[in-house]
């Protein structure tokens, strides 16, 4: 199977599919962090190259509900941020509607103002062997929702809210790179169940 992993430079999902014998290529504007097939550039350049499956991780900076507070500073709509969110939605939808038979687009909970389609599935790292809570949504096309593979006890929140900090819970993933981490356990489940 030919697998495109869009907006990934870590190689996490790409390497999981490669280990199962598939041809998988990651694509990002950044260089890859691990050896393996990688296209550094715009994913639109390679989107129509005959893929069987795409797993996409489009940027969530402007779409995520976590950034919604920056949309209304002083209770006034930040027009510049809103416009960037609309551009991000257009990119998200281009990936979701790509001419590829099987698609998974991954993102956190989106801000309601952008009116994205309803996600198919919510997954948690602790369902796949990582002891953290960090809700991840999947929009799926011609794929079954992932089944949990290794449910473990939660030891902390990966990207906690102010409320979780107040409750004294351990919060990790403090910088943007850490917060965007994709879990090897979920990548392995994708390769096992969708490959």
State the share of residues found in helices, binned by percent.
10-25%
Class by SSE composition:
alpha/beta
The largest sheet, given as strand count, sense and whether it forms a barrel, is:
7 strands, mixed
**Globular, elongated, flat, extended or rod-shaped: what is the shape?**
globular
- Overall strand count: 9
Give the CA-CA distance, first to last residue: 7 Å
Beta-strand proportion: 15-25%
| Widest β-sheet, arrangement of strands | 3-2-1-4-5-8-6
What is the count of DSSP helices, taking H or I runs of 4+ residues? 5
- Low-pLDDT residue intervals, each spanning 5 or more residues: 160-168
Radius of gyration: 17 Å
List the quaternary state of the chains.
Answer: single chain
Mean pLDDT: 89
Topology order in helix (H) and strand (E) letters: EHEEEHEEEEEHHH
Overview of this protein structure:
This protein has 195 residues and is α/β, with parallel strands linked by helices. It is built from 5 helices and 9 strands, in the order βαβββαβββββααα. It has helices spanning 12-19, 79-96, 162-166, 176-179, 184-194, and strands at residues 2-6, 23-28, 38-40, 53-56, 102-107, 121-123, 132-133, 136-141, 156-157. The chain has a 7-stranded mixed β-sheet, with helices on both faces. The chain has a two-stranded parallel sheet with strand order 7-9. The chain is globular and about 50 Å long. Residues 160-168 have low confidence and may be disordered.
């Amino acid at each position: 199977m030919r697998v495109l992993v869009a907006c990934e430079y870590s190689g996490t999902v790409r390497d999981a599919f490669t280990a199962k014998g598939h041809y998988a290529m990651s694509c990002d504007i950044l260089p890859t962090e691990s050896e393996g097939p990688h296209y550094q550039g715009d994913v639109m350049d390679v989107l129509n190259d005959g893929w069987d499956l795409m797993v996409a991780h489009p940027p969530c900076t402007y779409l995520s509900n976590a950034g919604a507070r920056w949309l209304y500073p002083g209770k006034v709509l930040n027009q510049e941020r809103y416009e960037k969110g609309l551009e991000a939605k257009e990119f998200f939808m281009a990936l979701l509607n790509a001419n590829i038979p099987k698609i998974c687009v991954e993102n956190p909970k989106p801000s309601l103002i952008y009116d994205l389609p309803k996600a198919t599935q919510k997954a948690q790292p602790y369902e796949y062997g990582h002891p953290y809570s960090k809700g991840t949504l999947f929009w799926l096309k011609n794929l079954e929702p992932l089944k949990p593979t290794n449910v473990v006890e939660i030891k902390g929140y990966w990207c906690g809210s102010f409320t979780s900090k107040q409750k004294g819970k351990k919060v990790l993933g403090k910088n943007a790179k850490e917060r965007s981490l994709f879990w090897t356990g979920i990548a392995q489940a994708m390769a096992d169940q969708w490959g």
